[in-house]
């Protein structure tokens, strides 16, 4: 209600009273529910919550887009790095292949292994038959391949000469191929095997030094075979085998002894080398032993025992025939 200026009371909202049919409307503020405005508050909270959810969704989408961008960027970087690595590997392989292909045409690579004076080769050939005395410190080994390779080719020529003079027949292959395979096979094969044993026995020697040492050790074989292929006496062969072949073997054994530590490794390494080196010389000689004996029989004549007279019994019929013949001859005279 509303009090006017004359002290009279009247309706506070006459328009509402008019709309409601002129009746009075009294609102009890005390009985009014405190939660009457909660619907508006709920709407505001819902609106605020939806706004927050939209913001969270937008942030998540932005984060996903950022992660996708970063992932794509990392993927692009990884792809580019992979291409660069593959390119580098390809270029490195290409360079290695080019070097391997040009190795045969580049003589300068092999020049240090064959750069030696003839005087040095002569001295090393003589030294290969002189055993060293001092084994307390490592003996020097020549690191060149000119002398050893020339000795191997010389041994091939001597072996080929022995094959031709003995009349050797090779069914599969040629005499030259057999001689080259035998000599080079021994040189390379035994050198590799002894180097492997030296590695196991902790001997201080390289593959190049082993090739040089065994190659110069073939000088004794060349001398022995050159003499015994032309002078066919077994006693002479055994003497040269023990003296010249033994000296060259002792020389190599002494060098390995000076470069190996320990009794057992020395025994294994040096015993194996000595056995292989001496047996190879026996093999080269006695492979053609029977054919050489046949050549000796042809040149000196076979050992046929002298003809001896042997008493034999004469049959009775033959004796009677002889008597009749003698009588007929007597009557005729």
SSE order, as H and E? EEHHHHHHHHHHH
SS-based structural class?
mainly alpha
Helical percentage: 55-70%
What's the alpha carbon Rg, rounded to whole Å? 57 Å
Largest sheet: 2 strands, antiparallel
Strand adjacency order, main sheet: 1-2
The low-pLDDT segments are 16-41, 305-312
Keywords: Cell membrane, Cytoplasm, Differentiation, Glycoprotein, Golgi apparatus, Membrane, Transmembrane, Transmembrane helix
GO cellular component, one term: Golgi apparatus
Transmembrane segments: 145-163, 175-198, 210-229, 235-255, 267-286
Function: Involved in the maintenance of the Golgi structure. May play a role in hematopoiesis.
Characterise this structure.
By secondary structure, this protein is mostly helical. The chain is 70% helix and 1% strand. Strands 1-2 form a two-stranded antiparallel sheet. It is elongated, with a radius of gyration of 57 Å.
């Amino acid at each position: 209600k509303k009090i006017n200026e004359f002290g009279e009371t009247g309706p506070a909202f006459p328009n509402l009273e008019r709309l409601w049919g002129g009746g009075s409307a009294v609102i009890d503020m005390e009985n009014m529910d405190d939660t009457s405005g909660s619907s508006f508050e709920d709407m505001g909270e819902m609106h605020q919550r939806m706004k927050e959810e939209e913001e969270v969704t937008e942030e998540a989408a932005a984060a996903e887009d950022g992660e996708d961008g970063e992932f794509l960027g990392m993927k692009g970087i990884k792809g580019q790095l992979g291409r660069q690595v593959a390119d580098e590997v390809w270029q490195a392989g290409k360079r290695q292949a080019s070097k391997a292909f040009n190795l045969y045409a580049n003589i300068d690579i092999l020049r240090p292994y064959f750069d030696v004076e003839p005087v040095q080769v002569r001295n090393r050939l003589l030294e290969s038959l002189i055993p060293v005395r001092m084994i307390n410190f490592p003996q020097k080994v020549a690191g060149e391949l000119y002398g050893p390779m020339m000795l191997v080719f010389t041994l091939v020529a001597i072996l080929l000469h022995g094959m031709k003079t003995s009349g050797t027949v090779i069914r599969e292959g040629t005499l030259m191929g057999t001689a080259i395979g035998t000599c080079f096979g021994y040189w390379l094969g035994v050198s590799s095997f002894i180097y492997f044993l030296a590695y196991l026995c902790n001997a201080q020697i390289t593959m190049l030094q082993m090739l040089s040492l065994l190659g110069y050790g073939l000088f004794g074989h060349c001398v022995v075979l050159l003499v015994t292929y032309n002078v066919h006496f077994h006693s002479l062969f055994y003497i040269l085998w023990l003296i010249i072949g033994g000296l060259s073997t002792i020389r190599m054994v002494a060098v390995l002894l000076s470069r190996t530590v320990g009794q057992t490794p020395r025994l294994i390494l040096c015993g194996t080398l000595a056995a292989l080196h001496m047996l190879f010389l026996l093999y080269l000689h006695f492979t053609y032993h029977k054919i050489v004996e046949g050549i000796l029989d042809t040149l000196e004549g076979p050992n046929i025992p002298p003809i001896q007279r042997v008493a034999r019994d004469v049959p009775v019929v033959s004796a009677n025939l002889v008597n009749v013949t003698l009588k007929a001859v007597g009557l005729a005279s």
